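Quick question: what would this complex look like in 3D?
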Amino acid sequence: MGTFPSLKVENVKKYFQVGRAVFGRGKQYVKAVDDVSFTLDVGGSLGIVGESGSGKTTLAKVILRLLEPTSGKVYLDGVNLFSLNNKELRKLRPKMQMIFQDPMASLNPRKKIMHIIGQVFKIHTGISDVEIRERVIDLLAKVGLTPPELFLDRYPHELSGGQRQRVCIARAIALNPKLLIADEPVSALDVSVRGQIVKLLLEIYEKHINEIAYIVISHDIALIKSLCKDTMVMYLGKVVEKGEVRRIIEEPLHPYSQMLISSIPVPDPEIARNRKRIPISGEIPSLINPPKGCYFHPRCPYVMDRCREKTPPLIKVDDRLVSCYLYSE
Amino acid sequence: MTQLLVFIIRRLTQYIPMILAVIIVTFLLVRLAPGDPTYILVGEVGDESFVRAARERLGLDKPLYEQFVIYISNVFRGDLGYSYLRSEPVAKLIVERIPATLLLVLTAMFISALIGIIVGTIAAAKRGAADLTLSTLSIVGISIPYFWLAQIILIIFAVWLGVFPLGGMVSVGHEYQGLQYFIDVVYHLTLPAMTLAIFNIAFTTKITRGSVQEALTQDYILTARAKGIPESRVVFRHALRNALIPVVTYTGFNTGVLLVGAILTETVFAWPGMGSLLYDSIRLRDYPVVLGIFIYGSIIVVLANLLVDILYGILDPRIRLR
Amino acid sequence: MRAVDGVTLDLRKGESLAIVGESGSGKSTLAFSIMRLLPDNARIIDGSIWLYPEKIDLVRLSNDDMRKVRGRRIGMVFQDPMTFLNPVMRVGDQVAEAIMYHHGCTQKVARKRAVELLERLRIPDASNVALRYPHQLSGGMKQRVIIAIAISCNPEILIADEPTTALDVTVQAEVLELLRGLIHELGMSLILVTHDLGIVAEICDRVAIMYAGKIVEIAETYSLYKSPKHPYTVGLLKAVPRIHESNSGVGGIRGSPPDLVNPPAGCRFYPRCPFVFEKCLGEEPPLIRVNNDRAVACWLMM
């Protein structure tokens, strides 16, 4: 492998300005992403788990530079994406792709599938139309849309939800990306169809494990467990725990992770009705005025004085990274 | 409540530049038009020496920015110039006429809003044949030109049926007081107000119907129905209350349209308002008055929009917090 | 399009019944039919909905009589708290409204009761919250307001249509806990319409699985999860990713939910069924009682 990790995210921050500076009240910010760093090697799979307001989708968009960052750096194969100009960035686009939550909204309803996927080749390569058609057929077969010829002339609304998401995946992997980010890839789909897409994503991942690194974003940690090895748990724009998914589920260290895992409904009445529940307290606070110190402290059953003062740093505890004073000296 | 106040003040500060812009444009229009501005302001009255004297008096020989300063300070003191044709200050002429126009326009607006909203709501709630008829009538109502309609109404009700007077605001020759005066004015007000109102009724009905229909498709209507409350309450308290917001906005915009309609309507009915004054002044080339009405009219429209904004803030609590 | 095609179901007093299905299953249509809140282009063309103890057929009630039932005898909790609350009406008033109409009391009395309800739903500072507008509340609070509206007149039956789908996981857990407590306290029966097999396991006594407008299996919760009989149920349970197992949630069920305008002949599930055989293509299997508390609609069972 190369000397660089495939993806290196360094102290990325994304703040949105809200409200104007008026009458002594200064500018207010929504700190959607507040100092996030991580690395991902080729062949790596990382999940990002969080609820609303966690900043997970904003983080993804900033990494792909679909949103301009407030500060920080993102290196893809050693190249700082934030230092590129528009032209250079455009050339790199095929190498960093995203699959979005709502397949219907991601596809142009007026274009046929052939055009939707074919466009990728048209814009970024110089190959002939005949060859483009061949490649599109290949891709459709790869994502399980068979017979592929049948789908070329269809419009998005003629396909089912699962089929549309397969088209989105085909489009994303068309030019062999190095980084693939899937944002809630199955949330908009029926339960019985989700498993199909999960299977597909796993197949693609295994086939390209030497070239691709991928990130899955979801509020559903069970989904992330099926797709990723590692995961980061985010809360209000910060990372509170990072480690192997399996381990975090077995033994969550951060109180928020504990609360999260204990809230997940389990499809087994034996377990569901007999397990110990961590009482949920309060709700996710406003992003405009986050609590001082550790963002989670108002809801934390183990809150100490330190927690109200300063945000705990992300430190290594066993096989994890955790941001919590319970675990420091 | 303070939220609302802050909201109003903020809106006011947004509108004042607009009025200033109107004033500036008026100033520039006159001075920068080809030809001698003196003639525009003075009219075709008087001989060469009079014109020269007028030019000096009006300061038209001074540099532009000096004129501007004088002009602005005049406007703020309420001095909009002098009508040489009628030998009266412009401001006085206009201000005399404002009450009559306001009476006419506000009455028309009030009636048409009331009727339009109620009819529109019922049309949206009932659907079916009644709805179709009403929609057609609306389109007809919107399309009829004012001056034609005004004259037709005049002919039918005043001439043929003789139920209403031929024009004016008060009966000539009588000096009514108090209640009798009030009744006399209403008597004269009926036809012109009706004329003006017809367009707005049609328009308001159409807008309300669309808006209420849209509101009735919203999810919270299901919640309301699931409570088992009477359908009339669902339509009026839930749907209409939300649907009113765009209706009010459109009605506000319509003030401008109504003011324009008032010009011809007042003229046909000899109603002594700003509209007929404008018509006459244009005909008589009394430009200072025309320009003065331009400024006053703009201020009225801006104020109407401000009122709409305030109403909007009252109707929609989500706006107040922004 | 036959959204609900021949469904027979009963709900016992004090029980929580789940109706589980995906899109096109007809579960929401069924729920809205009970309340007679269907959209204009929908019609109940056949069948009866009996409300006990009087044994009134809701389908045949006049609009006025049905209005007396709604809110008073049957309450409904909706899916998306954002769009299901009137944005220009104060939250407390929205809760008080049904009380005023069904109990004929004054606004003042109704408002007081509304505040009590909000307190019962664990909304802090309830009297102030009652004066607020929906957009000033968080998602979880809004959903509690919707629940308050539904139970405001102490109905015997509560229908909840995907009540937690739009909420965050941690908020969802709390709301479910609340619902469960309320139902026991107030002795209500619950019909929970959902696609989420996880929440069903948490609070429901019985489960009915719907597919393409028909019920394919009904059973007691524990039995259903332990030994599902219908191939669709089996597939669904396998398709849900479980956090304490490895390799769960991969694969799903092949194919897609069916077209309800032209449903397949025979058993509607056959195009996706891993155990399909000849009989399935020709004839539709009826819902047959298999033992005391289980009914399945599948030729494999006979």
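Answer marked as accepted. Strands of chain B lie at 82-83, 88-89.
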